[in-house]
Write a structure and sequence with these properties.
It catalyses: DNA(n) + a 2'-deoxyribonucleoside 5'-triphosphate = DNA(n+1) + diphosphate. The protein has 581 residues and is an alpha+beta fold. The protein contains 21 helices and 14 strands. Helix 8 runs antiparallel to helix 11, helix 11 packs parallel to helix 12 and helix 20 packs across helix 21. The protein binds a DNA duplex (12 and 16 nucleotides) through helix 9, helix 11, strand 10, helix 16 and helix 17.
Length: 581
DNA sequence: AAAGCTCGCGCC
DNA sequence: AAAAGGCGCGAGCTTT
């Protein structure tokens, strides 16, 4: 049984609170909402108390903000199974509405036996906005027991007036736990290998304030080709002027524009830009700041993107260049078990829309080849461009040209995308499969639209309104796919997390050096990026971990799309060193 | 000097 | 290669 469903059926809660003076307390809540006696806790007693209750009844811990509470538990060696993160759940509930499905999406589901969405106006209720700004950051929400109890009560009441959000709230909260756990464990990082990579590209580490040798050399080549010995290559405006003086007529210094020109300066300049990027984004300064004791610890921000994707704020986990992947290296006696989902988003689209033809194309390991085999388009590349274009709202170019053929071949999937776009263009909200709702358009957007429809509107007003309407349509079109894919990934992660916890503790093998008390002797998640995970595992458990990753993917598919004939094949590797693909 | 902006480019 | 959705981050540059 998928773990999230079990989590959703949790019978009891413990609500944690912290006063401004740092005094801690806990209150048990029954399923009917009855509170038990308040248990005051000293800071030293918190972890032990949590561990006891966790072992006895495996409750759901209700707290203000996972980054505020969980690190101290992990530090004390206490891992919990589930929580309810009030800040994250607040953000979901505050946007959600009980409306006829914001896009009539579920009507397209042929195989979903789930409940239909009741159509009823939302009742007036205690506002969810009392809880402060639902943004990430220290103390962006109150941590007191009083505030937590009141907010939790509001959220329970709000849940009752909205579509069924239990799974989404459980998944979002599980993600919050995982983000902290991954930060605690860290990605095993081979600093020497990273340094070798840097040295091979840039030359040895220069003194502070000095450019690496390779950049100096290539920079001179660029200046020679420009015929300008003092050209500044690091300032785009100055570089544009230098290029123009040398006869290269560019409007920007972006690489795709540069590549359109034939000139001796182009090749060395592109090379220079690559080196500069490597140095500034992932050079020695990055190593010093983000890798300590052989562990890379970026800061993940679960729910940081409106679609439900995670964001990051520090360390750049979302932009880790493929070039640097070889620096990810398992500890001695350990392995990296890496997996990513092939074409997650179109598969999610097929399942969500109940598109049997697209589901059939997705049956094999490669969805794009499947599309070609059904005869919709001629080549795999065409299939990929057409599909991505359809999900992102491309109207011109190759993707726009191929769109009608996809519409004929996959009417359910394309119809759902088109309806989501149309809803957005009219200022409406759309929703993901588990019920995450798109944000309403800004007041400025609405004002712009109404202005354009008033008498006296200029052609420019109308053109601008049409453009911003289409922009919003492209956003809502993509929202339903990106957001539902994020939900699939969360379910995958959460299921994997509990499966990993069920693996036996390693007692006699080598332990993971800097992974924290909880994870040094067991397989643990260390990296997540939209549709990809890396687990750091004792070598003898690597196969079991691979099985767990596959099983969790199957569970996630069935949890989101019960009965859907859409599979989510994984590209799975067991290695000592992560490789650039 | 700090804050906020755009540009360019890395990831999915 | 192309063109579209979502991001973070560093650099230069401008504003406060």
């Amino acid at each position: 049984m998928p773990d999230l469903a079990a989590m959703n059926a949790s019978p009891t809660w413990w609500v944690l609170g912290e006063s401004a003076a740092g005094e801690l307390s806990a209150v048990p809540l029954t399923r009917s909402g009855e509170a038990g006696p308040v248990v005051p806790l000293s800071p030293a007693a918190l972890a032990e108390f949590v561990a006891e209750r966790e072992a006895a009844e495996s409750p759901r811990w209700v707290w203000s903000d996972t980054p505020h509470w969980y690190p101290r538990l992990l530090e004390a060696g206490v891992r919990i199974a589930r929580c309810h993160d009030l800040r994250l759940c607040h953000a979901i509930l505050a946007l959600s509405e009980r409306v006829a499905d914001p896009v009539p999406l579920r009507t397209a589901l042929e195989w979903d036996a789930g409940p239909t969405i009741p159509v009823a106006a939302a009742r007036p209720e205690a506002t969810l906005f009392d809880f402060g700004v639902p943004a990430a950051g220290p103390d962006s929400v109150p941590h007191s027991l009083t505030a937590a109890l009141a907010e939790f009560a509001r959220q329970r009441a709000a849940e009752a007036t909205r579509r069924d959000l239990g799974l989404l709230l459980a998944a979002e909260s599980a993600g919050a736990l995982i983000a902290i756990e991954m930060a605690t464990a860290g990605v095993p990082w081979d600093v020497a290998e990273h340094d070798r990579l840097l040295a091979a590209e840039l030359g040895p580490r220069p003194a502070p304030g000095v450019k690496p040798q390779a950049m100096l050399t290539v920079g001179e080549e660029v200046r020679a080709a420009l015929g300008d010995a003092t050209a500044n290559l690091d300032s785009p405006p100055k570089l544009i002027r230098a290029l123009r003086t040398a006869g290269v007529d560019v409007a920007s210094t972006s690489q795709w524009e540069l590549m359109e020109h034939e000139h001796p300066v182009i090749a060395p300049l592109l090379r220079y830009k690559k080196l500069a990027r490597l140095l500034t984004a992932n050079g020695w300064a990055w190593l010093d700041e983000w890798v300590h004791e052989g562990r890379y610890r970026p800061v993940y921000v679960p729910g940081g993107v409106v679609t439900g994707r995670w964001a990051s704020s520090g360390g750049g986990a979302l932009q880790l260049p493929r070039q640097l992947r070889p620096a990810v290296r398992a500890d001695p006696g350990w392995r990296l078990v890496s997996a990513d989902v092939a074409q997650l988003e179109p598969r999610v689209l097929a399942a969500y829309a109940g598109d049997r033809a697209l589901a059939a194309a997705a049956r094999g390991a490669d969805l794009y080849t499947g599309i070609v085999e059904t005869g919709a388009v001629a080549t795999r590349e065409e299939a990929k461009f057409a599909m991505l274009g359809a999900m992102y709202g491309a109207t011109t170019g190759e993707a726009g040209r191929l769109a009608p053929r996809l519409r004929r071949a996959y009417p359910a999937a394309m119809g759902m995308l088109d309806r989501a776009a149309s809803t957005g263009e009219q200022g409406g909200k759309v929703a993901t499969k588990l019920g995450r709702t798109s944000p309403p358009p800004s007041p400025e957007w609405a004002a712009e639209q109404s202005k354009a429809s008033m008498p006296g509107a200029t052609l420019a007003d109308e053109a601008r309104a049409r453009r911003t309407a289409r922009d919003l349509g492209r956003f809502t079109r993509n929202f339903i796919v990106q957001g539902t894919a994020a939900e699939w990934a969360l379910a995958w992660l959460a299921g994997l997390r509990s499966r990993l916890w069920e693996l036996p503790l390693v007692t006699d093998g080598p332990h993971a050096a800097a992974s924290g008390r909880v994870f040094s002797r067991r397989a643990h998640l260390v990296f997540f990026l939209h549709d990809e995970v890396i687990v750091h595992a004792p070598a003898e458990q690597a196969e079991a971990v691979a099985t767990a990753i596959r099983a969790a993917a199957d569970d996630a598919g069935q949890l989101l799309f019960p009965g859907a004939p859409v599979d989510f094949p994984l590209d799975l590797r067991i290695t000592e060193r992560s490789d650039a693909k």
